[in-house]
Protein 1
Amino acid sequence: MAEDAKTPGHILITGAAKRMGRAFARTFGAAGWFVTIHVNTSLGEAADTLEEVKKAGGDGRILAFDLTDFSAYDAFFEKLAADSPPLTALINNASMFEYDEAWTSEPATLEKHFHVNAAAPILLSRRFAELVRDRGGEGVIVNMLDNKVFAPNPDYFSYSISKYALLGATELMAMALAPHVRVCGIAPGVTFVSGVQSDDDYEETKAMNPLKRAIEVEDICRTARFIVESRTLNGEVITVDGGQKLMKLERDVAFMTERQK
């Protein structure tokens, strides 16, 4: 019988050494999943993440890999398949986030953002889907987006348009990879200190939404589990921002405090 992604299996989470990726790892570990913690260079923080996964009752391992080294994907997926349950879920969480503007954007900045935020998730998703299809199973991909794709402002120009590219890829892959793999996305609002923000700036802006509530990490983790466990959910992007996208902010929330204006 083909496995399904609702049953705890093996999940790969990119950029899982800290912040949102660590929270995902801890959540899925606690739910019984075997968690592969992808990291680029932050091995010490990845070890802390793995310890948290195990304390939550789960199991996993760490794989270090440069997502922009596209020639090394074959070797990476060979490691993924070794000594672990079949891979059934993927969260494309790793992200490049550097400030630029349309007036100042340079080719190198555009390239960095597109490689990490668009090309890598697309290529990882394709390889993941091939694994699932070839063994006759079911799989699910969750792409981490940004509520900026539904409420644009011109700040973080290269980052923003790379997330627009991933939004389009999410919809196209949801069609192309079915029926073997479902593809959805999450578009969160500000959840951690963002870019140039200080801790004080974050405290001032974290509840800048119609609900006047901060976006909790647990809200996003619950959304990811809902997507993974809902076998007929495909091609959907769920915004978790307290309704902030309805406010049509003129600038990124990082610049919406009196100190930053």
Protein 2
Amino acid sequence: MTTTFEPNTITTTPKRTTTISRRLPAVGVVALLILALVAPYYFYPFLLMKLMCMALMAASFNLLFGYGGMLSFGHAAFIGSAAYIAGYAAKEMHLSPILAIILGMAAATVVGWLFGLVAIRRRGIQFAMITLALAQLVYFIFLQAPFTHGEDGLQDIPRGTVLGFLNLGNSLTMYYFILAFTVAGFLFVYRMVNSPFGQVVIAIRDNEARATSLGYNVHGYKLAVLMIAAAIAGLGGALKALLFQIATLNDATYLASTEVVIVAVVGGIGTMVGPIAGAAAVVGLDWFFAESEFPVMVINGLVFMACVLLFRQGIVGTIAAAFEKRRAQGTEESKDA
């Protein structure tokens, strides 16, 4: 009796495909970083700096909603608080830019903590409406507060110098200053999401009742995420105040919250680089239609509607889903070979 052995029909393609798919995000991040380093020599630096500030604000919303499951319409309160405090610290207290930014982030964190005390036990649309109402309250406080100068705002905010010799009045120096904070902010978000703390937050988002039954302090985790998101939004707001050298009520109005939501959704909720893609799309459209008489907010609204109706996963989410689908098809074809 002769025993025959069939040759192994399993190829190494799935393994190779898996390796490539795992390396692709890292390659993309490196390419994005290299592009960011050389971009100011080929594009308008001011536009790129605005993009990075907006990306940080959207990353904050993405952290809170995409990973924490808390829909907030009150991000303008965090952005405006940081912008006013950082601007006041730089102009009236003559502090260094870094100290001004730290104070702005601290102010935003405190506002986030106060929001959490009121809203953290609510979920869904109730949480969203409470944050919107609280943000409007903060707006009227800034309107009446003497140090904000009402509708005139804080103007001619000095950018100052860093380490005594890096003059932020220079566009390139300011660009790399903002880039450093942007990279640090996104690295922090990435590390937090992929830490044990972040995994618990995601578990709470997916099934809050189960997380509670496992003994986790759900409200404590949610409050911590809200405060961290507020601090990151504050970082974007403080940098924006130094960039534009002005802090006004526009930073605290509900339209600022709306813009953050649009940027995050267009880029892709729950994706790490989605806020960057969304900011690039929105800032690019703002620049493209700047010379026209067509309202920019209408353009942003149309883009938002297109994302919701046509590709709900956003730019990055749709691309990632397409790559995953292609990888899965390649794996199935290899198994069938």
Protein 3
Amino acid sequence: KARRIKQAREEAQAEIENYRKERERQFRQYEAKYMGSKEDVAAKIEKNTQHMIATINKDVERDKDKIRVKPDKTGVVTEGVKHSMNPFDEIAVEEAVRMKEKKIASEVIAVSCGPAQAQEVLRTALAMGVDKGIHVEVSGSDYETLQPIHVSKILAKIAQNEKADMIIVGKQAIDDDSNQTAQMTAAVLDWPQATFASKVEKGDKEITVTREVDGGLETIKCKLPAVISADLRLNEPRYATLPNIMKAKKKPINKIAPKDLGVDISPRIKVISVEDPPVRQAGVILPDVDTLVSKLKEGGHI
């Protein structure tokens, strides 16, 4: 039985490899017929696309897990809690990868700040199609006090070092809902920004971004380089395939520290207290309007 399982696995792997080779052969035929030689394609990409897109990936607690406040009320318990990529950052990664697939970008870089487990979200981004991952190692008490201004300065430095022409991030993280990283990063770099993007289109030297606002849609144009934050309806992120997940495990991730970038991560803000929301009182069914008015008067509401 074990031999049959091994043989079936080897046959499946061989079929996957043959399929990959056939798809690559078909693409090369299409490329030669419609796009020219490899040198021509490279020249077109160099001329018409942005060189880098940096995305920031935050490692957050899964929304279906029970969030517990620490006994000293300084934050939430993260030990033993499963983490995943922040959903808005996942949308940002998907948009960046789509730009690369459309030849709008030539390289996509994912950045994550945090302890060793932050590499898990970088592996997910690599499996989705990102070219390179950078892990900014921050752990212990430094990670607990890491704030949006620190992340913004780190991302700005990496964008400058990598000569990125565009930065796209999730509009906010679902754990702290700060919604500050994109705006602060744009300020640090002195780049234009387009936040809450539900649609992104690239022109020659500018981008057109559609934003969902109260009562309708707003369309703005920004000159490049620029910072974009992704909203919920920008796209539907892909599921990474098993072959890509396996390949992502072998891809190198560059590890650096904030001090390597010249960024001071000393806390600027002190958290006074983190508490569970008050327990909501049970509803009461009232027989009539007079009783409702009486109850409201008793509670001092009217």
Protein 4
Amino acid sequence: MNNYYISPSKNSLFIAIDKDTNQLIATAAVRGYDRKDNIKNRNYNLNSTASIYRLFVKKEYRHNKIATRLLRRIEEFCRENEYNEIYLHTQKDSYGALSFWLSQEYEIVDDTHDAMGTIHMEKVLTENVYKLTSLNEAEDIIES
């Protein structure tokens, strides 16, 4: 766990603890994209793509926005660490997972239709991909 989520500076492990019982109730982890296989039509890499792993909430604590709050913290961490997008995969039969990710503005990039029902998803974090300017606003205007 230390090698994957704690030691590397652009990786992190997040937890939620019930203040009353002091019990661990949720986890979420993020690390640079290090999968060996490529996702269809995507160029993910270790430096610019984060991967979400291990987002789990104990059954009795679900539907209390805990996963949403953990995810917001992960997205904030990813922006601070200059990731351009976040990748994750889930399975169609994982109760509530696909609808949760879609509600958080993650998009399906590949439905593998495999035996496990694997769905690959992403959320693009970079808002200003292009810098637009007009010639009237440019500092150096060439005059003839």
